């Protein structure tokens, strides 16, 4: 658990950098408002408030105190807490903007003890006046000048202590405290809500204290812009320009580069100033897909992928029933060991090599006579008579063969085209005596 000290509006600090009664700032009575998710970006419209009746921070007086020689030790501790140089204090203060908190806000506060800035986790009550930097982060507590830094713990694991006059205030709800994260870019102006008149909005240029404010009507409706496909950072900018705030349902905030897949409410819905729009984003590495899904694999097409080149007249699944061209044979689907029709019969398998006279095509039966002609050896890749169909060469273009034909003069034949094996286009099939045996 993170130990957090409650800091109530209007209650003096026990170890301030400057006296609370010196007039550096003035808190207001503001009821904390619930926020979606707890994590808020510094450019969220309506995150902070203002008032038109009086200045809430005297930035010039704070600068004068920090640059006086007698406060040099405090100035060095103050600058170190904020990560700046002592001689850069005036320039740094010129870029800060006074606002009022509209939410109970977690920060890292600093007391001034024994010449050093001592950090501690603090919960600032809504209504406390602070100076925010160019990214919308609380930087200084106005009433005492104490430097502020972002809270870096888990807001769901805090233990808040109310003591030293900081009594638990009305409306306090630990589940509704917020943590401010820096805006994705430097701000030019901050959109505030008048804490005394919520129907009145205030546009305050960054680095000014109220003299250049412009007002607008917070009741005016604004349409949610199209956000699908934009990055999370870009979507936040578009919403802020419309006066709408970003909400995210997940833990923490996604990276600015995460792609937005949807918004709730959807594009075109009209909302009041400061209303929240919940964004859904794609998982890391995805683009435009819903959370939990994966993009299609590279190279995936809607059509089937084939292996090797194909003849325009052939089909990836089955040849045309009317085709009898040797260039598109139908492969045999008979299992090994089944009987096949004899070569030369309709649907039979023609001999792949010219057999010797009177000898079976598969080599079975009695050996040939010693006085007969010697059998012609089969060409490479031809069937061996073991029952396995001749090898089929896939991907060969029409008009080519898998092996050279047997030597000898071709003879004509009336047998049908082969049903298996590699077709020989443009050459007649060799003939020979029909085999009288069946393959194993």
Task: Write up this protein.
The structure is a single chain. The chain is mainly beta and 440 residues long. Among the domains are: 2-219, no CATH class; 221-291, 2-Layer Sandwich (Trypsin Inhibitor V, Chain A). Helices cover 8% and strands 20% of the residues. The chain contains 4 helices and 19 strands. The strands form 5 sheets. Strands 8-7-4-3-12-13-14 form a 7-stranded mixed beta sheet, with no helix packed on it. The longest helix has 11 residues, at 72-82.
Summarize this structure as a short list of keywords or feature phrases.
single chain, 440 residues, mainly beta, Trypsin Inhibitor V, Chain A, 7-stranded mixed β-sheet, 5-stranded mixed β-sheet, globular
Task: List the total number of helices.
Answer: 4
The profile of the biggest β sheet is:
7 strands, mixed
Question: Which structural class fits the helix and strand makeup?
Answer: mainly beta
The proportion of strand residues reads: 15-25%
Biggest sheet: strands side by side, in what order?
8-7-4-3-12-13-14
* Rg over C-alpha atoms, rounded to the nearest angstrom: 43 Å
List unreliable stretches of 5+ residues. Answer: 286-440
Helix content, binned percent: under 10%
The CA-CA distance between the termini, in Å, is: 81 Å
- Report the order of strands and helices: EEEHHHEEEEEEEEEEEEHEEEE
Query: What is the 3D form?
Result: globular
Give me the count of strands.
19
The overall pLDDT average reads 75
């Amino acid at each position: 658990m993170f130990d957090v000290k409650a800091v109530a509006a209007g209650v003096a600090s026990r170890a301030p950098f400057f006296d609370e009664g010196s007039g550096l700032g003035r808190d207001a009575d503001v009821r904390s408002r619930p926020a979606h998710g707890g994590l808020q970006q510094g450019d969220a419209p309506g995150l902070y408030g203002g008032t038109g009746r009086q200045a809430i921070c005297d930035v010039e007086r704070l600068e004068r105190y920090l640059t006086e020689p007698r406060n040099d030790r405090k100035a060095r501790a103050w600058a170190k807490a904020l990560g700046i140089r002592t001689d850069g204090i005036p320039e740094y203060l010129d870029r800060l903007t006074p606002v009022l908190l509209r939410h109970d806000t977690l920060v890292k506060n600093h007391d001034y003890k024994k010449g050093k800035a001592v950090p501690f986790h603090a919960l600032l009550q809504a209504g406390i006046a602070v100076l925010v930097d160019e990214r919308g982060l609380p930087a200084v507590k106005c009433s005492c000048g104490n430097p502020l830094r972002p809270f870096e713990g888990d807001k769901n694991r805090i233990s808040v202590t109310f003591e030293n006059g900081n009594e638990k205030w009305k409306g306090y709800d630990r589940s509704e405290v917020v943590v401010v994260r820096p805006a994705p870019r430097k701000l030019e102006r901050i959109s505030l809500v008048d804490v005394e008149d919520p129907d009145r909005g205030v546009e305050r240029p960054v680095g000014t204290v109220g003299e250049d404010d412009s007002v607008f009507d917070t009741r005016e409706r604004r349409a949610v812009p199209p956000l699908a496909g934009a990055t999370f950072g870009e979507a936040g900018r578009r919403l802020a320009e419309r006066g709408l705030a970003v909400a995210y349902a997940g833990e923490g905030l996604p990276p600015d580069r995460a792609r937005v897949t949807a918004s709730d409410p959807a594009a075109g819905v009209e909302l009041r100033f400061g209303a929240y729009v919940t964004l859904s984003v794609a998982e890391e590495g995805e683009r435009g897909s819903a959370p939990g899904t994966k993009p299609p694999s590279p190279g995936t097409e809607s059509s089937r992928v084939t292996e090797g080149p194909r003849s325009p007249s052939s089909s990836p699944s089955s040849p045309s029933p009317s085709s009898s061209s040797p260039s598109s044979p139908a492969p045999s689907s008979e299992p090994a060991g089944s009987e096949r029709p004899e070569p030369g019969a309709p649907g039979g398998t023609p001999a792949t090599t010219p057999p010797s006279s009177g000898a079976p095509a598969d080599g079975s039966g009695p050996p040939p006579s010693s006085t007969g002609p010697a059998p012609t050896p089969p060409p490479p890749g031809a069937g061996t008579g073991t029952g396995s169909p001749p090898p089929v060469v896939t991907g060969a273009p029409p008009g080519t063969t898998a092996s050279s034909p047997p030597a000898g003069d071709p003879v004509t034949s009336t047998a049908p085209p082969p049903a298996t094996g590699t077709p020989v286009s443009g050459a007649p099939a060799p003939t020979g005596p029909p085999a009288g045996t069946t393959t194993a």
